[in-house]
Amino acid sequence: MQSYWMQMTETDTVLELRDVPLPVPGPKQLLVRVHASSLNRGEFLHGGLHGKPGSWKAVGGEAAGVVVSAGAEAAAFQAGDRVMGRCGGSFAEYVLLDDAEAMPVPANLSFEQAASIPLAFLVTFDMLVLQGRLKAGEWLLINGVSSGVGVASLQLGKAMGAKVIGTSGSAEKLASLKPLGLDLALCTRQPDFAPAVMEATGGQGANLIVNTVGGTVFAENIRALAFEGRLATVGYVDGVVHADIDLEALHARRLTLFGVSNKLRTKEQKAAAVPRFVAEVLPHFAEGRIVPRIDSVMELAQLPEAKALMEAGGHVGKIVLRMPAPD
Fold first, then answer.
1. Domains of the chain, CATH where assigned
2. Dist CA 76 CA 217 (whole Å)
3. How far is CA 325 from CA 6, 20, 34, 299, in A?
4. What are residue 130's phi and psi, to 5 degrees?
5. How far apart are CA 238 and CA 208, in angstroms?
6. Mean pLDDT across the chain
7. pLDDT at 46
8. pTM for the whole thing?
9. pLDDT higher than 90, residue 44
10. Nearest 5°: phi and psi at 16?
11. Taking the mean position of all CA atoms in its chain, how far away is CA 62?
């Protein structure tokens, strides 16, 4: 089968499409014929999800496809079932998916749509529900709202009844998100949005902020938070990983700051939220309240071009790879 591998050097990434043997599922795994997989920025960041420079690793973190076979202890799915989930090495024709991570694909979704859900929306569920405690009627601010996680946060936030403010440096991207329910679009790449947030919220501030940008907007996010506000840090595409903290604001306004990453979590910790996600979020997809936002669909052999498109930052939503049709 075809599978993409990546080597992280000190300054760059090298991609290689290889022919490798078909994987064999373990007792609690599914062998899945991949139909689609989507890109995530963290897979290609230095010091991010990939590992130490110089090593080779099968790349890709989420997939949607059809179960070919199941391990002896993987009883929830069987051959022929449409599934999606987080998994390693998903830029490939076949992949092993842990049964604890496997989720059914709603009948109304294509494989391309399904492949854009597991990573971005499980991260978003962690930020908005599990840690962020977002409630209907609260204000949600999303830095970098046009990113994959940003769009997912907008969509889930609106489905939960929140009012959503989004920042982006592109007025065109912001305009394209208005139909998804974006209540206030702030066209800026600078740390200057707190006054507009305060004005929109009647001087209250945002109850929950999702920071996909990084350290350049951290201090401004503190200024934009409401009393008992929560700030989620999920990325730092600006490359700035240190920022000052206003301890007086943290103390007086009883703020909560938290990170969202799976890098150091065990498989069991990562999978613990999947049943709640299936119960609480998948119905939004099945009933059409959330429709995955896909920017582009490209072929497996076009991964280098897809990666370049993502890194150029011109996309809105997810970039998806379509696998070759089965022989």
1. 2-117+286-322 (3.90.180.10), 121-259 (3.90.180.10)
2. 44
3. 23, 17, 10, 10
4. -65, -45
5. 21
6. 94
7. 53
8. 0.94
9. no
10. -140, 125
11. 10
